[in-house]
Specification:
The complex is a heterodimer of chains A (about 400) and B (about 140).
Chain A: E1 6-17, H1 26-41, E2 50-53, H2 63-71, E3 77-80, H3 87-101, E4 106-113, H4 141-145, H5 154-168, H6 173-187, H7 202-207, E5 210-212, E6 215-216, E7 223-234, H8 235-238, E8 246-255, H9 271-282, E9 291-293, H10 299-308, H11 317-323, H12 339-343, E10 345-346, H13 349-363, E11 376-383, E12 388-396
Parallel strand pairs in A: 2-3, 2-4, 7-10, 9-11
Antiparallel strand pairs in A: 1-7, 1-8, 4-7, 5-6, 8-12, 11-12
Chain B: H1 22-29, E1 34-38, E2 42-44, E3 60-63, E4 67-76, E5 90-97, E6 102-106, E7 120-127, E8 132-138
The chains are: A alpha/beta (about 400), B mainly beta (about 140).
Amino acid sequence: MGKRAAALVGYTEWAPQRKWDRPMFGMEACAALAAEALADAGIEKSEVDGLVIGGLQESPLFPSLALAEYLGIQSSFNEVVDIGGATSAGMIWRAAAAIEVGVANTVLVLVPSTPAPIEGGADSRKMVMPAYLMGDAWGSPQSQFDIPYGLVAATSSFAMVATRYMSQYGVRPETLAKIAVHERDNAQKNPKAVFRDKPITVEDVLRSPMVCDPIHLLEMVMPCFGGGAVVVTSAERAKKLRHRPVFVSGYGECVTHKTVTYMPDMTVTPAKASADRAFAMAGADRRRIDLASFYDCFTITVLLTIEDAGFAAKGQGGRFVEEHDLRFSGDWPLNTHGGQLGMGQGGSAGGLSHVLDALRQIQGRAGDVQLRKCDLAYVTGVGGLMAANVGLVLEGA
Amino acid sequence: MRVEQPYAENGRPIPRRIPLAAPFFDAAREGRLVLQRCPRDGFFFYPRSRCPVCLGDDWRWEAVSGRGTIYSYTVDRVGLDPAQQSQLPLVIAAVELEEGPRMTTRIVGCAPEAVSVGLPVEARFEDLGRETLIHFTPRPA
């Protein structure tokens, strides 16, 4: 059932790193990612007729045009997606939709997140997070009404969501910590994870420094450089390729705000609207999923996604986490790659890591964390301050 | 290509007002809180060219009570904005005004441990030089 017109057929993923030794421009990274993903899929570049990107720092004006020229691709679908952390998941459904309506047949989804060289040779290898994330342009509401009050970053915003949730429904800090611990356990089997060889306990999480109440340091992702790419093609073309096609059988997207203060209800995320649409489109029963790969910038993000995407009733997410084993070996496997909490957040490609987690499981390429059966997965992306949500129902052919 | 905030003398970021929002900032200079009110949909915040419910442009500036309750909050203990280091621990909050809209603000005049969701608060104005910030402080219920 559902939309099975487009499939993910190949990918590449660069290990997230705090320090990136070989700075490269976005277009250079895109070219390398494209070559690797096409080789994995077994598709020639000449078949590519669509490009989906999230922008190019060295060519902010008309980035799709710059990239088509650089890669030597005549492209009939040129899309720039910018919905924060939900961008990668949003790129996947846009590529699938373009194939479904017939404007393209094979689309490259490219997510570079590498430091660019700096003119004059200055060192750009180390990650530096700008405090205001470009929200301080004159005329932006943030520069007038948020930044002066200290609300500048994701952590304080998600902390306000967690505070409100705890006040209204209550969840034990140990329960939120368990999410980070089980994801970290999964990361022990991922050779590309920054936190491989560094397992943690619930006590470690609760003893780690309080950054913004109630969020501890070990409940936050580690910002890294990285990169990833996926090849999306028609179901027809996918049949003749080497890997098991991963159908994009349902998808949904919802955006409600940007700054957390204006979130309609801080305990209800747009994950509900996107999941309802995605599962209805796929004609799939959410209780039948073999894998959940949920965007996990913070532990509270995962808890609210479990509820709003319909896996537990509102207020029962904590109990759900307590009752299930979220490890790859458990009864409700979550983020078997370790999530971004365990793997590191490779910039925008951090969101793509959830798509790739599902892709590998469905294609039977998940190595040490391979599930015995994985035919149906639900993947989410979260953008802005709990502001954008994308849900993808992915199904094996 | 990040544009730097113009800073107050103590290094903290101050609002960069736009022309449309002048009545809001001018009132704050005088210790008053004024918001736009749409004749159909009521008060809204932050200042916008049109009502975010109906997109009407027949709103008017009106004084509000300056009273509200804490919808949610956090205590920034590390200074996510390095410019706020001198202010730690920083209680950042979303306050719901009696008139309906929510504002991003700081809770001042009490220990972080005294702050809770639902706590009644009222506006306190802090002159930062070029502009005035609107903080909130606990009030008798």
